[in-house]
Amino acid sequence: MNLRSVFIIVALLTGDHLMAQTQVLSIAECHRLALEQNKKVKAAQYQVEAAKASLKSVSANAYPSIDGSAMGVYLGKPLAGAFNGAVPEYFGSGTITASQAIYAGGKIRLGKEAAGKGIEIREEQKALTVSEVLLNVESAYWQVVQVNEKIVLANRYKEMLESLQQELQNSYDAGLSYKNDLLRVEVNLNEAKLNIIRANDGLVLAKLNLAQLTGMAGNTAYVVADSITGDFNAKDSIVLVADNRPEIRLLKKSLEAEALQKKILRSEMLPTIGVSASGLAAVGKGVNLSNGNNFMGSYYGIANISIPIFDWGKRAGKIKEQTFKIAAQQQQFEDTRELINIEVQQAYLALNQSVKEIDMSRLSLTQADENLKLANDRFKAGTITGKDVQEAQTIWQQAYSSIIDAKVRYRINEAAYKKAIGELK
Description:
4-stranded antiparallel sheet; Outer membrane efflux proteins (OEP); elongated; 425 residues
């Protein structure tokens, strides 16, 4: 095997290794990664778990509580042995107390309901976070696609300028054209090369943005699977389903939580009943006052009833305050619902405008293609100058760039419309 064959094999193996390491991401895969790894989504899930832990804590209020304590005492003179030896010199004691709420005006039950509502609120907050993160992922993903397409376009435009430069160079060398035509193309060619560098730098930044959103911060060793090809259809009718939005569900849950809070405040005006039982034991020299033994054990029970009688309207004022809070939140709910319907209208119009923009851009690109073909034919026939061909190339490049932008805007507007109607999950 000669050295050239070895180089070929090594190059092929290296290429296969690099391709194996390059991750290919579809938009669906980016959604999955964001749901699993995005920092904001993870933080929202931790808030849900915290709310669940709070429910367990509140639920424990319905069960008896048991507390224990221990104490050791050593007394010096003159306390030790006082009252004819009735006070021991040293002793130790322990106490165990069990307490149970019998009736608390419904506060325990309402507290559990409020904690359960807290879980629902956190879950809706997470759903809202997810929809916002996924919209950002869609935007970042299609921006990567956009920059990729712009790089392809920039290279094609550079190739056109290089071809025109060569033709003008030949024409100038033959004495058939002036140098200013050649210089003009060379200036534009330098600008085109610089634009390619800028586009590649822009691709790195776009990939870093997408990587951060999908939990792969700092990673650019991937490619996106999609392009600007595909269907770009208009929506025939608008869908006004504000109830599908997590913002609406969140406000509904918040209203329900405020209503529970009002019930809890009312329960403060009801009696509370509780019982407790305690057992105690003490060990020490002559600690039992009844017979002088060194051990004493006893127990006692307590029943407690607390009835609110008069507080100068403090509790009633809190209930009234809560009533106004609920009324204010109801107005916020209605206002948000109306604003969401406007947002849906805007998203619907923006999406359908994108379709029209794509259609017009396609027509412009077709016309620019025809114009460039005619310009090249007339240049070869000698009826126009290189400047005219260069203008036709610039028009073509702008038309091609416009259709890339229009198609990417459609994809982003499509995602925004899905979020507006509550379908981006």
